[in-house]
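A common beginner's mistake is to predict each chain separately and then try to dock the pieces by hand. The better habit, illustrated here, is to supply every component at once so that their relative placement is modeled jointly.
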Amino acid sequence: MLLDRRRFLSAVGAWTSSTLVERVAGASLARGLTLAELLRASAHAVVVTPLDARSEWAVLGGQRRIVTDIRVRIEDTLALSPPADAELLVRVLGGIIGTVGERVDGQATLRAGKPSTLFLTPVSPVLTYVTGAAQGHYPLLPDASGVLRLRPSPQLPSLVRKTGIAVTELSGRTLAETRELLGAAGR
Amino acid sequence: MSRAAAAALAALVLLVEAQPARAFCLARTCDPADPKQECELDSDDCPTQGKVLHWTSGCVTFAIQSDGSRKRGLDADDVRSVSERAFRTWLNADCGDDGPSMMIGSLGPVVCNESRHNPHGRNANIVMFRDDEWPYPGSIDSYGLTTVRFNRETGEIYDADVELNSADVDIRIDAAQNGVDLESILAHEFGHFLGLGHAAPEDEVSTMRVSWEGQGLDLRSLSEDDTAGICAAYPPGRRASSSCTPHNGFASECNVPVDELDGGCALSPPTNERHSASGLVLAALASVLSGARRRTRRPGARS
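With all components supplied together, the output reads:
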């Protein structure tokens, strides 16, 4: 199985010229944020309904990457200050533009029409990022009684530190419980 | 139902019940973060739609960005050695008759410090540090990020880059106690580099698990599920090309057209102005790692 010299040099000289449709994926390893850290790094803790999305190129740290801006309607404010407008743009890394796409694992996975709780970091009055990437995203799903409860984002990054982190604190909570928990953590 | 049929059914039930749940996840072309794709996920949040991401060749190369991490005092050569060990962890997986059908070679160091893929130019699969600032707003406290670029129709991986957050994280070599262990981070990120996703949420032992204590060295050792994942992605005996070149050929700089450097041949003479493809590739000859040759299990490995 190990390449011999001739085979290796032959392989090195091989030429691949196909320029097929490409996309990008990624994944991350991140420190698990506590609820207090998540709140401290956020300006808004809100319930939203995603409306639509658009992908575009953006320069981040000198690198040209695809981002997706998701327009969301603010349904409720759970903690921190309410957004000034009834709608916001939430930016996540990755997306598709034409035949080129990028994907970064560990990002919030919003779905149109499906409500979520988001912790948001604004970079302008209308443009925000999800704080801690998927650590700041909690889809709302009904339990057996039809009560909406927070669940962890499906594509969390691998989290360092597994006790006392926001993801475990918030998962399974109702909105009322979450509001109370955030109020206590913010004091 | 006859007695024999009932016994067979009972045995089948026992067999099914005895099977451990799948804990590894192979990354796929369907992107759960893209609302338009509406990817279906299984009960462990692993995508079930789309093609599995994979390197089609049986040989892949990586390169270390030449600056290493000045902030953390990590030299590029030292990082290369650690990277080779981290890759070897995956290549040493025991797939039964043989190791994974994959070899890894090291090229470099390279000048380019961007995560990018040039669809019409030369490329490199780069491990790079971010000493000054982690460039992704909102992604606070990230340790590392692997970006894998692939053909969305076939799942073929074209390019993969690993960025490490040395600006915020005290990354060290052999950090058993203080700091965060570079080889542990790389072992996890290289799992993504090879096309693996995160393990199931309840998995607490795999290198690809979704939570880690941040200390110790146990990410360096594969679990049974990690092994099952890499062996599923690159099974022994897989028919694959032996090309080790990055997509469209290798370049040290960020944006080199295919017809620059040497008129399309990857074996041009070295120049003083840039790292030549030939020198780096020849230097890599001694650094090709093979899963088939290194089957000895690392001490302390769980698998």
